[in-house]
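re: the backbone from monday

yeah here it is again, tokenized this time
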């Protein structure tokens, strides 16, 4: 998860403390912290320094729920009450209503799109995740564990301004960015011309115009 931020450390610390993450880096370029997931998986939260990030229309929302107990399908229950909260930078996130427990956990990322079925299919094929619910369209890791990805109808079309919150995907060993580009295009996505020179990642948009990045595999030991 990438949060464009004018105050990376403060912003990163907010989420680190809220979700009990592990700090990775803290420097002038930004702040990174890691959320550990089941089966030795993890999700990194990155907070690069970005001046004046666009929060006028927020298309991506994290959904949290009280931890230490059954969640009851909080994230993908269309009748579930969701409370609106704000992080330290003013980004909205959603909290499942329910019994107060010690701590919160991330149960889903909700993404606004122009066609939930089309975009769920795009992301399912791109990531290898399963469609587990259709109202709303919901993807889950094949293990059934960890946060889900939920697609909801957008209130207004995506503009040319970059989303302040977006996903980064990391390739597995042996995979290449050129192969990823071909896959994204075949599924209806596009590569963005980033004009930043040669970087170890590429920037794309899904069929609704939501930005995401694909990063090269981690170096082998």
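seq for it, each position gets an aa:
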């Amino acid at each position: 998860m990438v949060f464009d931020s004018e105050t990376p450390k403060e912003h990163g610390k907010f989420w680190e403390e809220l979700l009990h993450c592990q700090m990775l880096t803290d420097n002038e370029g930004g702040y990174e912290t890691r959320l550990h997931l089941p089966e030795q998986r993890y999700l990194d939260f990155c907070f690069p320094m970005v001046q004046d990030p666009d929060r006028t229309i927020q298309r991506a929302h994290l959904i949290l729920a009280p931890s230490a107990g059954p969640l009851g399908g909080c994230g993908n229950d269309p009748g579930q009450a969701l409370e609106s909260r704000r992080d330290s930078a003013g980004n909205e996130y959603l909290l499942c209503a329910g019994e107060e427990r010690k701590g919160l956990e991330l149960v889903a990322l909700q993404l606004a799109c122009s066609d939930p079925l089309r975009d769920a299919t795009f992301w399912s094929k791109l990531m290898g995740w399963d469609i587990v619910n259709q109202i709303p369209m919901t993807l889950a890791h094949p293990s059934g564990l960890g946060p889900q990805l939920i697609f909801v109808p957008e209130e207004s079309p995506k503009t040319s301004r970059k989303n302040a919150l977006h996903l980064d995907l990391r390739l597995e060993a042996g995979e290449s960015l050129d192969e990823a580009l071909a896959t994204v295009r075949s599924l209806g996505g596009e590569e963005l011309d980033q004009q930043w020179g040669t970087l170890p990642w590429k920037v794309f948009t899904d069929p609704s115009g939501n930005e995401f990045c694909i990063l090269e595999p981690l170096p082998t030991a």
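Residues 2-215 form a domain with the 2,3-Dihydroxybiphenyl 1,2-Dioxygenase; domain 1 fold (CATH 3.10.180.10). Residues 60 and 103 are 22 Å apart (CA to CA).
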